[in-house]
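Subject: two folds for Thursday's group meeting

Dear M.,

Sorry for the delay on this. The cluster queue was jammed most of the week, so I only got both jobs back this morning. I'm pasting them in the order they finished. Each block is the input sequence followed by the predicted structure tokens. Could you check whether the formatting survives your parser before we put anything on slides? The first protein is the one we discussed after the seminar.
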Amino acid sequence: MHEATDARLDRLELEVRTLRRSHARWRRATMVACGAAVLGTLLGFAADEVAEVLRARRIELVGADGKVAALLTAGDHGGQLDIWAAGGANVARLAASESGGDMSLWNTAGKPVAGLFANSGGGRVEVSRGDGELAGYLEATPEGSDLAMSRVGSENAASRFRVTKDRSEALLAHAEEHTVLLFGATRKGAAVTVLGDGDREIAYLGGDQSKAGLMRLSNASGASMVEAGTGDHGGELFARNTSGQGGAVLGNSDKGGFMEVRNGDGKGAASLSVQDNNGGRVAAYTATGQIAAFMDQGKEESGTVQVYAGPNRVAALGGSATGGLLNLFNLKGKAVFVAGSAADGTGGLFSIRTGDGTQVVRGSAEPEPEVAVYSDDGKQKRVISAPAKP
């Protein structure tokens, strides 16, 4: 019985070994068949079809060293493509943002050197230095466009150009980052402004409200010292003193040129002008602005000098075809002393008069020297003559 049992166990062991060898052969055959089928399928796709859609959340391209060279991912705002240099630095990125698309470039040290961005106003281009410091930008704005550049060591604009619908303007700044020059153009004209400390205007060249030319120079405090422009009759120049009131005015009138010198209160102290007969006129004024004296061309191209006391003329000196004439007046405007050349040109004469203008003394040099004294009513006189010649 034991022999029968042993024989049965030997047969079972033989059958198990046989089945195992058969299963191994079947598995190898099945794998070969599956591999051939897959290879055939891939070869069939390659030969006959192109895949239209490739779906993935992340796609990596790696180099021979196994390091990522490019990465395509999906983010909160859309797609993003990053590129790495051989040394491992992330040097470029193209991505979607809330406003549109962004493109950024870095150097191998990891510093930003350039960027192109979309924003609500349009596009913006930035360039930076090797250390990442912003060097300049060009930006589209809702009003127009904006271009700015900076110096090494500062990201503040050293020069800036802006264009809008109605105007174009620019600024330049010196090393201390203070704006020193502004210039621009509008539909009304163009202008250049130089700024000093505290952004105070110290020089201006441009147009005025009438679209005519205007130049203005100011002191360090920003107070205007010199203005030059155009008026109804030609050019004008105004020079102020430090108080801003006095100074001088040079310009043109409908008769010709004029010049006025003003005191510290801004009132005229002296003037030079052209009068109606095209002759010149020079005037001096009191501290309150009243006329004190003037000299001008009188009749027949002769000169006159007149002196005033307050509003009253008190002296007049003039010339004529026969010689000079002097008049002294009282405060009522009456001549009380007259002296000059006789009308016939033969010699000198003088006349002394009362306050109402009545002559009381008269003297003449020709034909014979004499002095006449008159009564108060001027009807009687006494004459003093020179002695007769022997």
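Second protein, same layout:
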Amino acid sequence: MALTSTVQDKLGMSPHAVEGKLDQAVEDSFPASDPVQLSMPHDREELNLQRQPSPTAMMLVGGGLLALIALIALRR
């Protein structure tokens, strides 16, 4: 409490006004001071959100490549 009263004396503000200013400062900086937000990784690799192709898509691509190779080979 001694620290709070010293700050209030230096600022020349009432205790309620100091509390209001502190609350406003916390509200303005909330996203940056949110401990959950700070601890969460922001990189897709850290979150393991890399998109893996489905087996069906891989088979379609493989089949398309085989068909393309067959067309090139039979055309000559």
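Two things I noticed about the second structure. The CA atoms of residues 9 and 15 lie 9 Å apart. The chain has six helices and no strands.

Cheers,
T.
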